[in-house]
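Reviewer 2 asked us to include a model.

Predict the structure of this chain.
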Amino acid sequence: MSYFEKKFGKYALSNLSLKLVVLYILGYVLYYAWPGNALSYLVLDVTALLHGQFWRIISWLLVPPSSGGNLFFVAIMLYFYYSIGTALERVWGDYKYNVYIFLGILLTILSALLWYVYLRVSGLSGIDLAGATRYYASCFSTYYINMSIFLAFALTFPEAQVYLFFVLPIKVKYLGWIDAGFLVMSMIGGNSADRFVIAAALLNVVLLYMRSRSWMSYTPRQVRRRQQFRRSVAEGRKSSPGADSIHRCAICGRTEKDGDQLEFRYCSKCEGGLEYCQDHLFSHVHVKAGEAPHMMKIEK
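Predicted model (structure tokens):
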């Protein structure tokens, strides 16, 4: 657990995926109630924002990833985003998921401002500048944030399977490559606004990978095991506070009683059901039954 998580983790919003879906539903209600008008007052139009329409810095979150369309497919899309977001929340924890989502929101806002500066430097007149920002404002929406959420899901659950068109099973990592390829091609073939907002979404994924490699690539089995571990620890502490420890690292001997921040996982490649703490899970030598666990040798 990082210093910032210890200090600010208590402020993290729980069920953030559900809150985002509720915002999208409100956006769809506005779209169908006032088609063609309501969303135009919500999008991230930088020119309008700089002219006093300050609500736009937040209201664009109400603009759903896809406006209109068949309500059945809209419901499926919202359920899909809710499912993958909730899965990430369970594995990462509320704090890390909050950081990823709100950083994506902040980067999207910054990309819109930088794009506006780019247009000003390009020498557009005031009228042309206002028209351009109004026309392309819808590019700066939650659409690419949701695309980045799926990329994060593919990084975290690469071996998970989804059913494409409800029939064809395919691993998420392959869909992740397709998603990344689509974003890159959209950057190359899109307009300047697309390039800025897609760059912001991809930067969020890169920053996620750089700071989170130690807790990425969970399989569904590891997710279930992690949840069972937390339940067993909670039940053990509640039923018998003075009982012996439930989990112990095979390398350093630490248990869950040595700190609330410690996490333990079984190694599927070691025989004998050995457990390791997060500091030694990736740095031990896999052992066979009867062998003593030990650390990897580090060449100087």
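The first helix runs from residue 3 to 8. The radius of gyration is 23 Å. We have added this to the supplementary material.
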